[in-house]
Amino acid sequence: MKKSELAARLLENNIHLLKCPVCGEEMTLRELKSIVCMNNHCFDISRTGYVNMLNKETKTKYTAGIFLSRRTLSDQGFYNPLLEKLFGIVLERKLGKIMQPLFILDAGCGEGSMVSGLVDKLNLVSDSYIHATGIDIAKEGVQIAAKNYTNCNWFVGDIADMPFGSKCFDVIFNILSPSNYSEFRRVLKDNGVLVKVLPGEKHFDEIRKLIFKDTMKEEYSNKEVRKHFENNFEIQEEQTIRYTVQLNRKTLHHVIRMSPLSWDTDIEDNNVDDIVHLKSVVFDFVILVGERRARNSTYT
Ligand SMILES: C[S@@+](CC[C@H](N)C(=O)[O-])C[C@H]1O[C@@H](n2cnc3c(N)ncnc32)[C@H](O)[C@@H]1O
């Protein structure tokens, strides 16, 4: 079966999740080729199976190369410890209960390996119906996701204005990506949870210290991001996960290409030749699990 048809068949059972990004109406599937609302706003399912729901052309700093490097590192298991933790969180919170369908959203999914891997793992242990949706503003990432993973539906879209109905999702993952808490609150079910992964303060510390030596950026703090989360969601659980990964020349190249730390820096011009001698790097993440705050809380 063609990728576009596979995606359409998956979407067919989950079309209730979508709302038209132009007029907000419900959507239906037309001939397994496009999704359309009652006002005839129509979005085609691409050849690889993703749907572009953005109303405007958007340019981001994220290139296909960056997403391919991220995917290579995923394939080599660099993110497995994080994936295991996320898997554990879903198991504990959702699938231990009565068999009910589970609707997952990955907001800022990039090249999709995390949520796709999670769905595979969950399907191995659960009899529940599990459906996952990934959305990202960078078409380059979503294209790679759709090409490689047919177990989720993929959309190009902005997390600030998502083409999904209200109260649709049981879990939102927001992994190393920006957040839009009012949209997250809108699309989460009443008892839904938000799982945000942010870089820990030692994440890629070796690279940071080489590139930003003797500058303000030599140290990283996630306090502001954490505070913003806390202002919007009630933290129920917090986990830190830190591990060291050994590098060879190839994987070092992918780590550097993928890391935003190196994007605005010409590594050779900045005397960071030592970077090629890096033998290992620390992966450090903080996972925050939160529930929506009551309506009368203050949001910032
Ligand atoms: C550091 S990457 C993380 C991607 C992925 N979650 C991962 O773990 O590899 C941040 C992602 O956020 C996406 N992003 C940034 N702003 C966004 C927005 N307004 N709407 C949707 N995605 C956005 C970027 O395109 C990028 O894919």
Structure commentary:
- An 8-stranded mixed β-sheet has the order 4-7-6-5-8-9-11-10, with helices on both faces. Strands 1-2-3 form a 3-stranded antiparallel β-sheet, covered by helices on one side.
- The chain has one domain: Vaccinia Virus protein VP39 (Rossmann fold).
- The longest helix is centred in the N-terminal third of the chain and has 16 residues, at 80-95.
- The chain has 300 residues and is α/β, with parallel strands linked by helices.
- The protein starts with a helix and ends in an 8-residue tail after the last strand.
- Residues 296-300 have low confidence and may be disordered.
- It contains 9 helices and 11 strands.
- The structure holds S-adenosylmethionine.
Taking the sheet with the most strands, its summary is: 8 strands, mixed
Helix proportion: 25-40%
The residue-averaged pLDDT reads 91
Overall shape: globular
Return the string of H and E elements.
Answer: HEEEEHHEHEHEEHEHHEHE
In CATH's first tier, which class applies? Answer: Alpha Beta
> In the CATH scheme, what's the topology name?
Rossmann fold
The total number of structural domains is: 1
Q: Work out the number of β strands.
A: 11
Radius of gyration: 20 Å
Strand content is 25-35%
Task: Determine the number of helices (DSSP H or I, runs of at least 4 residues).
Answer: 9
Bound molecules: S-adenosylmethionine
Sequence of strands across the biggest β-sheet = 4-7-6-5-8-9-11-10
CATH architecture: 3-Layer(aba) Sandwich
Query: What would you give as the CATH superfamily?
Result: Vaccinia Virus protein VP39
Multimeric status of the protein: single chain
Helix and strand content put the structural class at alpha/beta
Low-confidence stretches: 296-300
- Terminal CA distance reads 47 Å
